[in-house]
Predict the structure of N-acetyltransferase domain-containing protein.
Amino acid sequence: MIRAYQPSDLDAIYDICVRTAASGGDARGRHSSDRLLGDVWAVPYVIREPEHAHVLDDGTGAAVGYILGTADTPAFVEWYRSEWLPATVDRFAADDPRDTGLLAVHRDPDRMLRPEFAPYPAHLHIDLLPEWQGRGLGRGLMAAFLDGLRAAGVTGVHLGMAAENHGAYAFYRRLGFEDLEIADPGARFVARDTSPLS
């Protein structure tokens, strides 16, 4: 069942994020805390814009997947810089080399601002636990997210993924996302309008 995010889903959001953060695989144990990846890639979205967060519920009330994002990337970046970053930067172990790269990403919210994104002001993150993938459920999450963006008057959305995540790239292409030509050796970017999925 696809439903709206609820605050009681927060721990599940952290868990799903870390268990899918290694190009779709498990990233537990890679940082000083397994919650840090969620603090960068998932939780700020449900805190700031819960209306754009949807979860896949396994039927018992437990979230096993999510889609979340922002309708306005520049406004989200400003909030991240002024509120989220100061509230969370102390969660990272400054002396732990496992956190160095992620902390650099966390401290640089302006990385989300590129001229190529202007026609696609929204952006998203979608993750499902492996056992829930390949069943068409990601498509349902995407449809719910796009519906919410259209209702908010947003006409375009973009996202980035690890360049080596070929499965995710194929999924987005099937849903009508097109390549955005952006020079970034570690990431691949795609975008589409917010029209209903065909």
